[in-house]
Specification:
Number of strands: 8
CATH class of the largest domain: Mainly Alpha
Strand content: 15-25%
Largest sheet: 5 strands, mixed, barrel
Shape: elongated
Number of helices: 6
Order of helices and strands: HEHHHHEEEEHEEE
Helix content: 25-40%
CATH architecture of the largest domain: Orthogonal Bundle
Radius of gyration: 19 Å
CATH topology of the largest domain: Cytochrome Bc1 Complex, Chain D, domain 2
Length: 241
């Protein structure tokens, strides 16, 4: 499933605007009993395509690759990807509770701590995936979404997002659907500033000082982070909030 999953990671049209609960996968969000059920479900439903034991699997669900692929995502993103790609010959054929158990098993194999309660569907969007050290640093060249105010820089051809939010990982570089735009519009502005590259295609002058949703690839630089733009959409005609 490794190659197929990596391709799917880029195809899911979803921005993980996680709820501000502060919970992460370090907080014991699944039970050991649930992980045991997940291991059984993984073995019975997934071993035909790859190894019986996920600890022996060196794909996108285990080890460094797991953190790199899912850093700063919500568990809802991991759940959706797992359900829509597994089993490979019959995606989405298991019950939701079986997929939740498999998520618990994935977390256990990646050495995230267990707790006293099972992971539930209604908690997925509010739990973030971070490194085991507690790091939430967004990887360089990650495809991200950022909310901010569009401003013109010196010379007229330079554009920035000011009062911008922290970047959130997204799975699709294309414009967001209405439901995501409404969720993004309700999000507050932040304190970050990002230079924008490849923005001229989007005719930024017509949206100067508008509240915008920008998608693109995050490029970290010593003199300030940059976003290579793939999508730029208006959220509001002003940046009052």
């Amino acid at each position: 499933m490794g190659g197929k999953l990596v391709t799917f990671l880029m195809a899911v049209g979803y921005v993980a605007w996680a709820a501000d609960s502060g919970r992460t996968v370090l907080d014991g969000v699944y039970s050991s009993e649930q992980a045991a059920r997940g291991q059984a479900a993984y073995t019975s439903s997934c071993s035909a395509c790859h190894r019986d034991d996920l600890t022996a699997y060196r794909g996108a669900l285990h080890g460094i690759a797991f953190v790199e692929n899912f850093q700063s995502d919500s568990l809802d993103s991991l759940f959706r990807i797992t359900k829509d790609t597994m089993p490979r010959d019959a995606p989405a054929s298991l019950r939701d509770d079986a997929y939740l158990d498999i998520i618990a098993y994935i977390l256990q194999v990646n050495s995230y701590p267990s707790g006293i309660e099972d992971l539930k569907m209604d908690a997925l969007k509010s739990i973030r995936i971070i490194g085991k050290s507690g790091s939430e640093v967004m990887p360089n060249f990650a495809l991200v979404a950022v909310i901010g105010c569009l401003e013109q820089g010196p010379g007229g051809d330079n554009w920035t997002l000011i009062r911008a939010s922290e970047p959130v990982k997204t799975r699709n570089p294309d414009p967001s659907p209405t439901v995501e735009l409404k969720a993004a519009e309700a999000k507050p502005l932040g304190t970050r500033t990002f230079r924008l590259d490849d923005v001229s295609y989007f005719r930024p002058a017509s949206n100067k000082r508008h509240k915008m949703l920008a998608k693109g690839f995050l490029v970290k630089q010593p003199d300030g982070d940059q976003i290579n733009i793939t999508s730029l959409q208006v959220l509001a005609a002003s940046c009052t909030k």
